[in-house]
Specification:
The protein is of the alpha+beta class. Helices cover 23% and strands 40% of the residues. A seven-stranded mixed β-barrel has the order 1-2-3-6-7-8-9.
Length: 188
């Protein structure tokens, strides 16, 4: 795909959908730049994420890595989250940049989570994964691939190997905070 990245500091949208193409999470973000790991998006405190029937405002700054060469996950790292959330990895299908300069992908239910409390690192939403695999008819090959990816990511996050270490994301979180005021994309 020949999609162009926005200029660093540009507001943009990250749009998730479900397997049946129904809308899912839509998040206001700002493009921060790229490194050897991929492209980094930021969401300042107070910016919105919404899905049909639910909205929330970011309680802490967070950055999302769209990994280079991968279409099966996005890594979000939080700083100072009030519920001890540090890393939240959305397992995905067809995660990609669009020609319009936004990121889109299919949310595939499974998530890898790292909390900085006794809960530690774990794979989350297995119940939703099982329910949706029947409801949407996920192909067996897709399920096998994403289950293997989830287990691999869980181990890499637990080991805190880059880019799942604190230093890698903290540099991008610092960049997000240093941007100063940025307006989100036009309201919905």
């Amino acid at each position: 795909m020949n999609s162009q990245r926005p200029e660093p500091g540009t507001s943009m949208i990250q749009q998730w959908r479900k397997w049946d193409d129904s809308p899912h999470w839509r998040s206001d973000c700002v493009y921060l730049g790229s490194d050897m790991w991929g492209d980094w998006l930021g969401q300042p405190t107070g910016w919105e994420s919404a899905r049909p029937g639910y909205r929330f405002v970011a309680e802490s700054p967070n950055v999302t890595l769209i990994p280079a060469g991968s279409t099966d996950h996005a890594v979000t790292v939080h700083r100072g989250h009030p519920r001890a959330l540090r890393i939240y990895i959305d397992l995905a299908w067809d995660l990609r940049w669009t020609d319009a300069g936004s990121v889109t992908g299919i949310d595939m239910d499974l998530d890898v989570v790292r909390r900085v409390d006794a809960r530690g690192t774990y794979v989350d939403d297995r119940d939703e994964w099982a329910e949706h695999s029947v409801r949407f008819g996920y192909p067996a090959a897709v399920m096998a691939h994403l289950e293997a990816v989830a287990l691999d990511l869980e181990q890499r996050v637990r080991a805190q190997r880059a880019p799942f270490d604190d230093a890698t994301a903290d540099a991008w979180l610092d960049r997000l905070v240093s941007l100063g005021p940025v307006d989100p994309v036009d309201p919905r």
